[in-house]
Amino acid sequence: MYEFSRAVNSMHSEDIKLLMKQSSREGLISFAGGMPNNNLFPVKEIDEVYNNVSHHLKKLCFQYGPTSGYPPLVGSLQKIMLRKGLPVKNDKILITTGSLQAISIITQEFVNEGDVILTERPCFVGAISVFETYGAKIIGIPIDADGIDISALKNVIDSLKTPPKFLYITPNFHNPAGIIYSEKRRRALLDVLSGTDIILIEDDAYGDLYFDPRDEMLTKPIKSYGGHNVEIIYTGSFSKILGPGFRLGYMLSSPEIFEKAESIKQALDACTSNFMQILANEFIIGGYLEPYLNFLRKEYSERKNILQKSLKKHMPKGIQWVEPQGGFYMWLRLPDNIKATSLFTDCLNKGVIFVTGRTFDPDNIKDDHLRLSFSNMPKDTIEKGVMLLSKVISSHMKDIERLEFSRQN
Known about the structure:
Number of domains: 2
Structural class: alpha/beta
CATH superfamily of the largest domain: Type I PLP-dependent aspartate aminotransferase-like (Major domain)
CATH class of the largest domain: Alpha Beta
Distance between the termini: 55 Å
Shape: globular
Strand content: 5-15%
Helix content: 40-55%
Oligomer: single chain
CATH topology of the largest domain: Aspartate Aminotransferase, domain 2
Order of helices and strands: HEHHHEHEHEEHEHEEEHHHEHEEEH
Strand order of the largest sheet: 2-9-8-7-6-3-4-5
């Protein structure tokens, strides 16, 4: 019998493995996968990029690169971040193997076993898994349509004998809740954290995927706000705007945090794939990125609209959700007497799947929501999937009504 370390005991890691398995099952209408649709990838454009790369760069693709990242890609990211108002002149960029590695590096840099981390509740399950792996005590703070509950956050901070190491949030088109923080809530959050020495990790994997160009201003990074006394580490990803297979992410932090993070990354994998970094950079400097983002915004907007219309048409009364302004997800709240996990098996038998809300709860308890991802869905199957899901939910609601009626009589 092997004596495994405590690091392998993350219950949310098991949820992720099951989620990835379910997302790829054939013959199912899957609202489970938080991933782009294969038919949307820029295959033709990447072919053009690679075919036009010089022989010298092609050879460089196969070589090790600097731990901090391929310098031309770092330069391209600096220009992109500068347009978003981020402090790239003072802070430094570290290229990571996906943004989840950035979250892992930050956690390893600051967290010892038993340290407290604050997250939203619900929270991106990948981040929860990382925090569990490093032995952190996770405290979830509820969110509403405008962002994290400021009063609840204040109460938690005031109740702790030792301050948490950091607060992790996804303010733009939240995974799984689909919401976007209001500017008022963003500034209130900074007011609460100011002077507390609590680091804010701002995970912005979806900020470029707004549906209406007029909403771009809503995605302004919190790190770009001036005049606050809060240490903010900003993370981002190419997974949702180019392809998860590139495994490219990044973090922007103060030089002191960057230096330690670079050392941790060196020990993890030496460097992120030069091949993928060079292709991504050539994609950017070749002028492909913005047209491709416009294409994705249109495609995801169309899928969201179909899902929104289908939910309004078929869902029974009592099911609530916030229509997202970008990103991949809708977050459905069930009536109090219906549990998402109790729906799951029946839905699976009917040929449609989703992700239960409990997956995104740091305590793995709250079971009153389900996440629907529309990003990976063929447009012509969305309504059918909603119809199947709605029938199962309606059936469970009627069963509850009959049970309650029989108890009263």
